[in-house]
Amino acid sequence: MSVPLNQAKAELFRTLGHPARIRVLELLQDGPRPVHELLAEIDVEASNLSQQLAVLRRAGLVTSAREGASVMYALSTTDVADLLAAGRRILGAVLTDRDGLLGQLKAEGHDR
């Protein structure tokens, strides 16, 4: 039995709802990286990073491969990077709009 598309999308966005996961995805935009490099860049315990990477793997957002003694992580598709870029654009538009609204509200207060 398959899940409805809206439910699958909600699960995807829930997966993205953790700052450490977003940071991992941002770091992987430049290419595959070993766990020890991710750990050096993200302020979390190793066990927590391992949990977050497992969540991202289960969601299909990252892939992992062993290279010698290291485990390398990579984005599963360039669409993940596109999604992060869209998120930045949306956030920028929302914050710009809020700043504009705040300016309008302040201007209205002076007019009265």
Tell me briefly what this model is.
The protein has 5 helices and 3 strands, in the order H-H-E-H-H-E-E-H.
Structural features, described:
The chain has 112 residues and is α+β, with helices and mostly antiparallel strands. It folds into two domains: 1-76, Winged helix-like DNA-binding domain superfamily/Winged helix DNA-binding domain (Arc Repressor Mutant, subunit A), CATH 1.10.10.10; 77-112. Helix content is 67%, strand content 12%. It contains five helices and three strands. It has helices at residues 5-15, 19-28, 35-41, 46-58, 78-111, and strands at 33-34, 62-67, 70-75. Strands 1-3-2 form a three-stranded antiparallel beta sheet. Strand 2 and strand 3 form a beta hairpin. The chain starts with a helix and ends with a helix. The model has no long low-confidence stretch (mean pLDDT 90).
Provide keyphrases for this structure:
112 residues, alpha+beta, Arc Repressor Mutant, subunit A, three-stranded antiparallel β-sheet, 5 helices, 67% helix, extended
